[in-house]
Design brief:
mainly beta, five-stranded antiparallel β-sheet, five-stranded mixed β-sheet
Length: 121
């Protein structure tokens, strides 16, 4: 498989805390179509867009998906880490999913998906 994706976490957050959440994409050598990276956030966390300049409180996004288009497999092997600031908003456990799929054309063997349980306590 030319592409793999892994959820590095952390997979446990405190409610109201902001953490640096990491997902890693590994590209192998070889020919394949360009890929799109997709991260699907569960309802118990929100992505942090920034901080309020007056209060310092996190500014949270309502979007549940994060995408990065056109990862090129033909520029050699590489490891890419995506860092997202996430805030725990609801005490619960839920699934977080990450995956890769061809940016255009027919799906092929380079698809890679993974899921993990993300807990907010």
């Amino acid at each position: 498989m030319l592409f793999t994706v892994s959820i590095d976490g952390p997979l446990t957050l405190e409610q109201g805390s902001v953490v640096d959440f990491v997902v890693t994409v590994t590209k192998g050598a070889g020919r394949a179509s360009r890929q799109t990276f997709l991260l699907v956030l569960p309802g118990n966390v929100r992505r942090v867009l920034g901080r309020d300049p007056d209060t310092g409180a996190p500014i949270l996004s309502d979007e549940r998906t994060v995408t990065v288009d056109d990862l090129d497999p033909n520029d050699g092997p590489a490891t890419i880490q995506y860092h997202l600031d996430l805030c725990g908003v609801d005490r619960s456990a839920a699934f977080i999913s990450a995956g890769l799929y061809p940016s255009s054309g027919t799906p092929e063997r380079t698809r890679s998906f993974t899921t993990a349980v993300l807990t907010v306590r």
